[in-house]
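seq:
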Amino acid sequence: MNLPQEFIEQLRGLMPGEWEALATAITTSEPSVAVRVNEARAAAVPVGARRVPWCEPGFYTEGRPAFTFDTDWHAGRYYVQDASSMFITHVIRHFVKHPVRYLDLCAAPGGKTTAAMQSLPQGSLTVANEIVPPRARVLADNVIRWGNPRCVVTSNAPAQVGKMTDFFDVIATDVPCSGEGMMRKDDEAVAQWTPQLVKQCAQRQREILADAWPALRPGGLLIYSTCTYNRQENEQMVDYIVNELGATSLEVPVEPSWNIHSAIGSTIPAYRFMPHRVDGEGLFMTVLRKNGDAARGDIRIKEKSVKKAVEIGKNWLSQPDEYAIEQQEDLCIAMPQDIRSEVAALRASLNVLHAGVELATVMGRKTVPHHALAMSTARASDAFPTCEVDYATALRYLRGESIGVDGPRGYVLIAHKGAVLGFANNLGNRANNLYPKPLRILSTHLPDDKPQVL
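struct:
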């Protein structure tokens, strides 16, 4: 790999004593691979079990397993995420001690969103937003796979989100950037880099922050991050937030052994992850508190329940009294009672793609259970019969093929070694595959054995 000469000169000015080590790490070292275990699902830990120092549920893997062919990944038992990015779990657990309304503003594909969901105090509401529709759909798929019923996925521009004045207690902004921190594992990040790209990204970041800023209540937290090295998109952007938007930088406690670099050319508390120092990719993160103090925006919206859907909720949810059952067109949805008004307010202002637990699609007299219900941690364990299948059958199911199952007729859950993959309609001689088409494995390759990740 040959780095652009102007980028090398930028590194030289950024870190005079370490730039050669950083450039060598980018061009010659292998990226690490890590997963974050879904503590709500998995009692197991990854093979080798080498923990990410700043993230308790994060582990480095041995090599790069073929995650596509691992049923545990499809079942939402873990998320593949760069170890540096897992630092957000440490940040959230340090600062957030009570239930909050949390926004991940630029959330796709969902790594930091799922990290937030498992790090926030019980009772919190997580909103994951992505402006680009195809990426927003991937985000929703990953949120559904994770299984937490207290997440809403939206697809809106930051300016539209900003109209929800004082609504959020915490906003995380992993803003689009020049991607310098991804150069070690992404040749495209090298090919597209120019000084002009850095300037364009910095300008876009300022716009995003200014547009979304009104949605953060005074006294609320902003978690700002990029996957790049230059100061324009990092320390200088923090100066903009502090001086122009009005915020105070906060210090995050870190262990010296983590080898995280501090801010460069600034006294602000900031945390730089660099591959010559840490086992992870390039990342910059800092935390700020919006000046002032105010309660979050008041909510007064209510929605109606649907009688037919209530019957479904009672049968399929482990704690049905904790949910309000709603119907959005042909879709029945279970919504946690305590966040129902907040979700209604989000629907009134934003384009909501997913919220709560999609229970079923109603087609005339026919009610078909939704894939989100199969994945949800809110599903009653005895709501549907579970049919265990071998690994080869599990892969055929994940490809969308017809399979045979040993179980009662009707809707059943397909599982491999206890990992639930989705629904099928067992007709006796065969089972109709209900695994969603967008999620299906396209490869026809059949591994001899299941990848051993957990």
